[in-house]
């Protein structure tokens, strides 16, 4: 009896040891990536590209369908309220006067149907709404995807509608939600964790810049991360993005108006190098920084590399402009570049930990 009990206890102990060893091996192959960024970050686009690369589950497709319907309803509610506030609803033809009431009765969590779709499409094409958007472009906020979805409204309202890849990429991210996406890269499993925009943290410091532009905001946030005591053993992958919009803007508006110390004129390469210098000046902690370039909007990723050899966390930080070798956010090549940068940084950190490379700040 005693011997049998002892054998069972030993077998149980060995099973636990094997499980612990297996968990340890698995953790060494898993790289958790924490995504953080401003309200206009492209991190949601990155996550959607990752999901598209590995394939969307039926549950994820259903979630995107609901999110698209909610985006359409929320956007048209904003248009109706702006129409009523501006008094332009008086321009509506007699047969269209009922449309604002019909649309405002639709709740955000309602699914689109043919009746709602007809009301939205009809209102969207009225001269009153056209004038509203033309005359109040800076005051009426519409998500970038709203116009795209309005033009597809009849298709979106079909009972059998399934989001396309383009629909998925244009779907705004849900705010104040935490999402997790897994992706395999060689022998590594990367776990992307998106915690949403830093709105709650940003309110603590945004008052410092009453007329804060997005680049100033990016610089301030980058400084708060790179010099944080929580990331003392962190490597940074720095991405500059949105070169097309940036290049067009500095041709119309002198960069020196907002950054007086800049003297490079409308040259996008000189401007990009200037902002790289600005970001590097914030690196008082002297962390390793690896510059990379893509189209996107500001964001950064935290990579806590938790395995033994890869004990140095990595931050992937993406800002608003880019250098010459570029790709677009709506292109899976963007995701592959991100993975390549992550992989390269892991190798660099492993070599440093093995004393093969000297620690070096670029």
Automatic annotation (TrEMBL):
<dbReference type="InterPro" id="IPR027417">
    <property type="entry name" value="P-loop_NTPase"/>
</dbReference>
<keyword id="KW-0479">Metal-binding</keyword>
<dbReference type="InterPro" id="IPR011025">
    <property type="entry name" value="GproteinA_insert"/>
</dbReference>
<keyword id="KW-0460">Magnesium</keyword>
<keyword id="KW-1133">Transmembrane helix</keyword>
<keyword id="KW-0812">Transmembrane</keyword>
<dbReference type="GO" id="GO:0031683">
    <property type="term" value="F:G-protein beta/gamma-subunit complex binding"/>
</dbReference>
<dbReference type="InterPro" id="IPR001019">
    <property type="entry name" value="Gprotein_alpha_su"/>
</dbReference>
<dbReference type="GO" id="GO:0003924">
    <property type="term" value="F:GTPase activity"/>
</dbReference>
<keyword id="KW-0342">GTP-binding</keyword>
<feature type="binding site">
    <location>
        <position position="44"/>
    </location>
    <ligand>
        <name>Mg(2+)</name>
    </ligand>
</feature>
<dbReference type="GO" id="GO:0046872">
    <property type="term" value="F:metal ion binding"/>
</dbReference>
<dbReference type="GO" id="GO:0001664">
    <property type="term" value="F:G protein-coupled receptor binding"/>
</dbReference>
<keyword id="KW-0472">Membrane</keyword>
<dbReference type="GO" id="GO:0005737">
    <property type="term" value="C:cytoplasm"/>
</dbReference>
<dbReference type="GO" id="GO:0007189">
    <property type="term" value="P:adenylate cyclase-activating G protein-coupled receptor signaling pathway"/>
</dbReference>
<keyword id="KW-0807">Transducer</keyword>
<dbReference type="GO" id="GO:0005834">
    <property type="term" value="C:heterotrimeric G-protein complex"/>
</dbReference>
<protein>
    <submittedName>
        <fullName>Heterotrimeric G-protein alpha subunit</fullName>
    </submittedName>
</protein>
<dbReference type="GO" id="GO:0005525">
    <property type="term" value="F:GTP binding"/>
</dbReference>
<keyword id="KW-0547">Nucleotide-binding</keyword>
<dbReference type="Pfam" id="PF00503">
    <property type="entry name" value="G-alpha"/>
</dbReference>
<feature type="transmembrane region" description="Helical">
    <location>
        <begin position="312"/>
        <end position="329"/>
    </location>
</feature>
<feature type="binding site">
    <location>
        <begin position="144"/>
        <end position="145"/>
    </location>
    <ligand>
        <name>GTP</name>
    </ligand>
</feature>
């Amino acid at each position: 009896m005693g011997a049998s009990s002892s054998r069972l206890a030993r077998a149980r102990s060995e099973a636990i040891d094997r499980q612990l060893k297996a968990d340890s091996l698995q953790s060494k192959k898993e790289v958790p990536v924490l995504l953080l960024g401003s309200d206009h970050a492209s991190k949601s686009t990155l996550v959607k590209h990752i999901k598209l690369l590995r394939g969307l589950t039926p549950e994820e497709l259903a979630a995107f369908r609901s999110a698209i319907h909610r985006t359409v309803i929320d956007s048209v509610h904003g248009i109706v309220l702006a129409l009523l506030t501006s008094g332009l609803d008086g321009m509506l033809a007699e047969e269209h006067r009922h449309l604002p009431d019909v649309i405002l009765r639709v709740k955000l969590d309602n699914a689109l149907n043919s009746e709602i779709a007809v009301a939205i499409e009809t209102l969207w094409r009225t001269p009153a709404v056209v004038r509203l958007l033309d005359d109040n472009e800076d005051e009426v906020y519409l998500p970038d995807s709203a116009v795209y979805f309005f033009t597809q409204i009849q298709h979106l309202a079909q009972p059998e509608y399934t989001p396309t890849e383009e629909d998925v990429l244009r779907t705004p991210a849900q705010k104040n939600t935490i999402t997790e996406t897994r992706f395999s890269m060689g022998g590594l499993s990367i776990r992307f964790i998106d915690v949403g925009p830093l709105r709650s943290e940003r309110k603590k410091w945004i008052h410092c810049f009453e007329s804060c532009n997005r680049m100033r905001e990016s610089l301030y946030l980058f400084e708060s991360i790179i010099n944080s005591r929580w990331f003392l053993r962190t490597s940074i992958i720095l991405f500059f993005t949105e070169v097309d919009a940036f290049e067009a803007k500095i041709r119309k508006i002198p960069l020196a108006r907002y950054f007086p110390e800049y003297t490079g004129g409308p040259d996008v390469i000189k401007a990009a190098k200037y902002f790289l210098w600005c970001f590097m000046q914030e690196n008082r902690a002297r962390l390793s920084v690896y510059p990379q370039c893509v189209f996107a909007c500001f964001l950064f990723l935290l990579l806590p590399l938790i395995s033994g050899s890869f004990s140095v966390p990595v931050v992937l930080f993406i800002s608003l402009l880019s250098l010459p070798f570029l790709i677009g956010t709506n292109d899976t090549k963007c995701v592959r570049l991100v993975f390549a940068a992550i992989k390269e940084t892991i190798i660099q950190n492993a070599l440093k930990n093995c004393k093969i490379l000297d620690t070096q700040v670029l």
